[in-house]
Structure formats: C-alpha cells, structure tokens
Write a structure and sequence with these properties.
By secondary structure, this protein is an alpha/beta fold. It contains eight helices and eight strands; from the N terminus they run ααβαβαββαβαβαβαβ. Strands 1, 2, 3, 4, 5, 6, 7 and 8 form an eight-stranded mixed beta sheet that branches. β1, α3 and β2 form a beta-alpha-beta unit.
Amino acid sequence: MEIGLNSAESWNAEWEKWFARYSRGTPRLGMWLAWSQKVDGRDTLELGAGSGRESRFLAARARSVTCVDFSSGAMDALRESRPPLNLRACTMDARNLDFPDGAFDLSFHKGFWSCFGDDDDVALLFAEQLRVTRGTLLALVHNAANSKMHEMFRRKAGTDKLYQVRFYQPEELMTIARSGLADAGIDAAVRIRGFGGPDWMHRGLLARSNPSVQGCLAALAYRCRPLAQAESLVLEVRITNRHP
C-alpha cells in the first residue's frame, strides 16, 4: 500500500505549508473529546499531533496535555506558537515513546494510523500507545465503510500525496485491538464508534455557541449517524486490568 507522506522530512515540508491553517481550524475532535471522555483534570497524550489544535483546546480542561510527532518542524512550530503552559510538544517516534508505563489517563490520535501501510508498524504503534495509557486509548482512522469519502480520497490521491492514505474497516480495528491486548496481557472494554461527517453543529450561529454545547451536539449526532456515514472510525479501548 502506497502512503504519500511517510517520513519526518516529508511531514516537515508539509507542515511548513499547512501549520497556520490547521491551527486556525475548529477543534471538532477536541470539543467531542471534552464532552465524551471527560478530560477535566486528566493527563492527556496526542500522538501524531501536527498543529496541536485539538490538544490546545483540551489544555483548558485537562491537567496536562502532551503532543508527540516525529516531525520536528511541526513540534518546533507548536512550541513557537505560545501554547498553554500545561501543553508540551515532544519530537518522538511513536513506536518508541520516552514515557513511563501508564503515564496518561487518555491517549488519542486522528488519522495517524492511516499513514502506515504495514500491519507490523500499526501493531507496534498500538502496543506502545497501550503501554503508556492507564485509562482510555482512542485511535481515529479513515473510514473504509464510508464509500463516498473513500472514493473522493482515491481521486485526489492522483495529484496530492496528502490523500494517499490507508482506510480501515471496523473488523480490522477490532483485530488490531484484540491481538494487541492479548499480547500485552490487558483486559479492556473495546468498541468501534463513528466521528465526523456533515458537522452542522460547528457552522453558522452554532459555531459561536459554547464549545461544550457544540461537543454535546456532536456526541449526539455521531451516536445517531450510521457508521457508513462517519468521517472516521474510532477504536475505543477502556483498560480495566493489567495482568502481571
């Protein structure tokens, strides 16, 4: 499977073009997480953070927020953008994180695994994210069940490497989770949810409403929307027990 941007150098160049634009965008994921995951007072980790837009939003609620990306350009730009005092930006390989076991209450990423075509890489990423998470792990990937979005990416991939990404089926995510949990000796509640789509709750007059209202509306809308219409699949792993 061909991935368009698969190195720190290629992402450094990409973030030089897109960092400011992505930073100004609506933190849709942050609003949804703040409502659905109750991040208040928790230590939170975002992998493949890029602009750090979602983490910057969550920093107003979480005890601490850590952004990780292997693009030094993205992390340098994030540090220079005057982030909140409880947000730190770290240049690291997510397959070998420099954090102790169970360091974070919540870990998440959006579209990160879609940048890896090799199943062994994805297994390593899941195992390492699982290692540093003591509460809930979330992985958002491009949704292969959404045929319209999949086809749109396929068309654009011919001229833009940013669209050359991997899409996942729900069954693939469940296989990754079950295998990784068994290898790690961890018990967890696992489910697949949907995120995103026609986000009317972030437009017009509603875009000026309280972020908590937008997050609540998003949670309700995503819960009611068929999975085939979701922009992303969400693998949610709530850890219940770690065996010695």
